[in-house]
Amino acid sequence: MVKSNKFCIFVSVKQPVNDITEVLRGLSAQIESMQKTIDSQHATICQINRNGQAQLRKIQSLERMLKKKDKENEELRKRLSKYEEPPKNSGNSSTPPSKEQMRDEIVRRTKSLRKPSGRKPGGQPGHEGNTLELNDSVDNIVDEKPGMCDECGDSLDGCDTELDYITQIISLPELKPLITEVRHYVTICRTCGKRVKAHSRRRRSNAVVYDASVKGFVVYLSTVQFLPYNRIAAFFKEVFGLEISQGSMVNWINEARRSAEPAIEKIREYIMQSPVVGFDESGCYCNKRLDWAWIAQTVYFTLVFHGKSRKGQELEDRFGDSLERMTAVTDRHSAYFALHFLNHQVCLAHLLRECQYLNELDKEQQWSGSVESLFQEAIHERNQKPTESIDPQSWLDRLDNLIDENLSRLNEKFTTFKNGLLKCRDYIFNFLRDPAIPPDNNASERGIRKLKIKLKNSGCFRSDLGADAFMDLHSIVETTKKHGNSPYNAILALL
User: Fold this and answer.
1) Which residue, 12, 290, 381, 382, is the most exposed by fewest CB within 10 angstroms?
2) pTM of the predicted model, to two decimals?
3) Between the CA of residue 227 and those of 5, 211, 212, 286, 459, what are the distances in Å?
4) Which residues does 470 contact at the CB level (< 8 Å), separation at least 6?
5) Torsion angles phi and psi, residue 393, rounded to 5
6) Which residues of the chain have pLDDT under 50?
7) In this predicted structure, what is the pLDDT of residue 50?
8) Three-state secondary structure readout of the chain
9) Alpha carbons 440 and 345: distance in angstroms, whole number
10) Exposed e or buried b for every residue in 225-245, given b needs 16+ CB within 10 A?
11) Degrees to nearest 5, angle at CA 205 with 201 and 208
């Protein structure tokens, strides 16, 4: 507003102006009054502007606070959903049993993906029972005969006897070490005087050594029964009275591993030549690091090896171009699908567990149950026709119909699972086409689960050498089992 001290006075010429000073005084009073009104209104407007700006800042602050609260509420809802949604465990997800809570383990041990057969527990009608057979080779015979007649009290010495029945009692002999002293002599030839030895030169200064039976038993307890060194040492001391150092145990295991190297290389070659191979991987704590243990296995061979990462490069370094001739049976870990395999088979056991979780998440819907039934029917079809090649097209058509359904009304986890099925659609029913392909990767999971038992007992591997030794010997043991032989005898053969 621009103020001015100039006034323009318009008066009618027809009206006489008697006192212009009085007129000017009145006009000045009016102008002053108007000026006060204008100043008051200006102050009010400024105050309103200031209040408006303060209100605007307050509104902006409230908006920021609301956004922050919305973000916090979203995080809290996600955290709360873990308690509202069914917990994930090894029965409805890929969570390993070692990561389960106690209550989930109780549920797992009393619940299975297998459907009830309707039959009573125990042996079924027509089932042929098994019992221990008498052994033809016995170590001791005891004749149990009465000494006196319980009717007349006469002695029965020299009376005729008849065999009623035989009982064979199996017991263990006293467990004590058998110590053999070998005396090495030098014979002096009477003709030429040469000192002749029948023995080799002593390699160690210690005059007491352990033979392969003791070494093999230590290796067996470590790699087959998964005992840590301190428990093995306690076992030998308490049962046999032998005090064996942990350093000796490490040396014996490394000795067995060196002897196993040619067999390990043969196993790798056989797996490289196999058309169908199952793969899996699991975390492995080694020397204060999180490394990875990998398994590659077929019907007859198992190879477990130590890797530094979970990337597919570990398989390429181990098997090279032979991957291009394999059908890989795996879970849906992305590393497997980045490799150039000939074909894939996705583990249906993993998918069935995810269906089980969705069934528990929303018990009103039927979609996940339909997917579950589809997979189970396909597995049953393969079990009914174990050697036939089955066209999977009809099964794929049913799967496509389920994938095409609109699941927007359901929890977002249903859509996520559906999108996952769409990605691996072409690798779900390959086991129907080729009887050599299993529908799941359970064999690989079982093979590598032994490593988790070892780690649970021992905590970790203290060195790369110890991890490699266990995995090589574990490969020998698992391959031996697949051929129906004794792991203990295989270990003795190495030593």
Assistant:
1) 12
2) 0.71
3) 108, 21, 19, 17, 11
4) 222, 223, 253, 451, 454, 461
5) -60, -45
6) 1-2, 11, 13
7) 77
8) CCCCCCCCCCCCCCCCCCCHHHHHHHHHHHHHHHHHHHHHHHHHHHHHHHHHHHHHHHHHHHHHHHHHHHHHHHHHHHHHHHHHCCCCCCCCCCCCHHHCCHHHHHHHHCCCCCCCCCCCCCCCCCCCCCCCCCCCCCCCCCCCCCCECCCCCCECCCCCCCCCCCCCCCCCCCCCCCCCCCCCCEEECCCCCCEEECCCCCCCCCCCCCCHHHHHHHHHHHHCCCCCHHHHHHHHHHHHCCCCCHHHHHHHHHHHHHHHHHHHHHHHHHHHCCCEEEEEEEEEEECCEEEEEEEEECCCCEEEEEECCCCCHHHHHHHHHHHHHCEEEECCCHHHHCCCCCEEEECHHHHHHHHHHHHHHCCCCCHHHHHHHHHHHHHHHHHHCCCCCCCCHHHHHHHHHHHCCCCCCCCHHHHHHHHHHHHCHHHCCHHHHCCCCCCCCHHHHHHHHHHHHHHHHHCCECCHHHHHHHHHHHHHHHHHHHCCCCHHHHHHHHC
9) 8
10) ebbbbeebbebbeeeeeeebe
11) 95
What letters, b where the CB count within 10 A reaches 16 and e where it falls short, cover 137-155? eeeeeeeeeeeeeeeeeee
Q: Which two tokens stand for residue 61?
A: 């602050």
Question: What is the rounded distance in angstroms from the CA atom of residue 483 to the CA atom of residue 220?
Answer: 18
- Across the beta sheet with 289-297, the strand order is 302-307, 289-297, 276-286, 327-330, 343-346
User: pLDDT tens, 264-273?
Assistant: 999 999 999 9
Residue 234: per-residue pLDDT: 93
Q: Are 356 and 372 in contact (CB under 8 A)?
A: yes
Percent of the chain's residues with pLDDT above 90: 32
pLDDT at 1: 47
Q: Do 179 and 207 meet the contact criterion of CB atoms below 8 Å apart?
A: no
| 264 backbone dihedrals φ, ψ, rounded to 5° | -65, -40
Nearest CA-CA partner of 223 in 460, 478, 459 = 478
Give the span between the Cα atoms of 250 and 236, in whole angstroms: 15
CA 173/CA 39 separation, integer angstroms: 117
For tokens 């199996």, name the residue: 170
Angle at 330 between CA 329 and CA 331, to 5 degrees: 145
Report the C-alpha gap between 187 and 185 in whole angstroms: 6
Q: Which of 303, 318, 225, 211 is nearest to 260 (CA)?
A: 303
How high is the pLDDT of residue 375? Answer: 92
Residues 410, 412, 415, 420, CA torsion sign: negative
Residue 131: the pLDDT is 78
